[in-house]
Design brief:
Length: 233
């Protein structure tokens, strides 16, 4: 009886671990908490270009990842749906010197064009745009820098996990399970930072929109994404 019991425990643990490790799949706990996949690992379902077209050849899907290839001119892609309060989790991997990003609350502003708050993705060591703290990985691009102390980023060629939490005006950036940035969109500190950025003249004020798309940025380098999932809050 003991042998049977321990064998059952072993099998249960094995299947739970296996389920959690399958890329682009939600485990039972995630489904129960309300997580939803935004990428199924096999198709472009749920994704479109900013103009509403099909994804160009510069984006490809292979081995459960969606990749923008260097020089492919794939352009940015966005979710078909819009989101307001949420927890977003994405794994990414870049090539050397790559520049990319994940934008959220992406929408068309009355003045300023199509914009979103950007979780910057960058090869901090070799990418060209690495001279400003608020242009480095994990920053709110061109507005607020990430914490140097808390940031632990894996090098090009290895997977990193980002998590973005938007709860009303409060926003948090996580990288590999460490919180590296937190800000309040209605705060004076945020407004002052925006005033010193390239987004200072948008209407409405940059970052204050209530909802928008999730965007994966193509910026000339090779970047791959997988395990893209969101949990409405």
């Amino acid at each position: 009886m003991k042998t049977t019991f321990f064998f059952f425990i072993f099998l249960t643990g094995f299947f739970l671990v296996t389920e959690a490790q399958i890329p682009n799949r939600l485990n039972r706990s995630e489904r129960k908490k309300g997580w939803v996949l935004l990428f199924d690992g096999e198709s472009t379902t749920g994704w479109t270009t900013i103009s509403g077209g099909e994804l160009p050849e510069g984006w490809s899907i292979k081995d459960g990842t969606i990749t923008a290839t260097a020089g492919g001119k794939g352009g940015d892609i966005i979710t078909a749906g819009e989101y307001s309060n949420f927890e977003l989790s994405i794994q990414y991997k870049i090539d050397i010197a790559c520049n990319s990003g994940v934008k959220y609350l992406f929408t068309k502003y009355e003045s300023g064009g199509d914009l979103g708050i950007e979780f910057q993705i960058l090869d901090d060591e070799l990418a060209e745009d690495n001279q400003k703290a608020n242009h480095l990985t994990g920053s709110l691009y061109d507005v607020l820098p990430p914490s140097k102390i808390m940031k632990k980023v894996n090098p090009p060629g290895e997977w990193n996990t980002i998590r973005i939490v938007v709860e009303g005006g409060r926003v948090m950036h996580y990288l590999n399970d460490f919180k590296i940035l937190e800000f309040v969109r209605e705060s004076k500190a945020f407004s002052d930072a925006v005033a010193n950025s390239k987004f200072s003249k948008t209407i409405p004020a940059f970052g204050t929109v209530k909802k928008g798309h999730i965007l994966l940025q193509e910026h000339g380098g090779t970047v791959s994404f997988r395990n893209i999932k969101i949990r409405p809050l």
